[in-house]
Amino acid sequence: MPVVPSLPYIDTVPVDGALRVRLTTARAVLEVGEDAVTLSAAGTVYEFALEAEAVLRPLVDGGTVDLAALADKAGFALEDVAALVQELVAGQAAVVGSLL
After folding, report:
1. Which of 25, 34, 37, 85 has its CA 20 to 30 A from that of 4?
2. pLDDT score recorded for residue 35
3. Distance between CA 100 and CA 83 in Å, rounded?
4. DSSP state letters, 65-91
């Protein structure tokens, strides 16, 4: 699957539940520790609170998921999911769009 830039969402992922997100690599690794969850993807290691596993797991499993579904699954506010995804987009570890 070709990498699709997240234009126009490079600077900010909008709080839009219909936007879809997927990781840019099939080789992402999610490790759950005692105090944090670590995602290794696209040459970068990200550390998040343990609760973020519910958002990250579907992505690491290879899914393309809309932000609303991730928020519902994790029990997070849509704004929080968009902020987490923005961090991944900024590091080129994820892409977002309405046509993914």
Report:
1. 37
2. 94
3. 19
4. EEHHHHHHHHT--HHHHHHHHHHHHHT
Q: Which top CATH class is 20-97?
A: alpha beta
Q: Looking at residue 9, what DSSP letter applies?
A: -
**What's the token pair of residue 58?**
């579907």
Rounded-to-integer distance, Cα 36 and Cα 19, Å = 26
Which residue intervals of the chain are DSSP H helices? 53-60, 67-74, 78-90
Please, are residues 67 and 82 in contact by the beta-carbon 8 Å criterion? yes
How confident is the model at residue 4, as a pLDDT?
A: 46
Q: Which token pair is 4?
A: 């699709």
pLDDT in tens, 17-76: 999 999 998 899 999 999 999 999 988 999 999 999 999 999 999 889 999 999 998 999
* Cβ 89 vs Cβ 95: under 8 Å: yes
Count of CA atoms in the C-beta half-sphere (13 A) of 48: 23
In this structure, which amino acid lies at residue 36? A
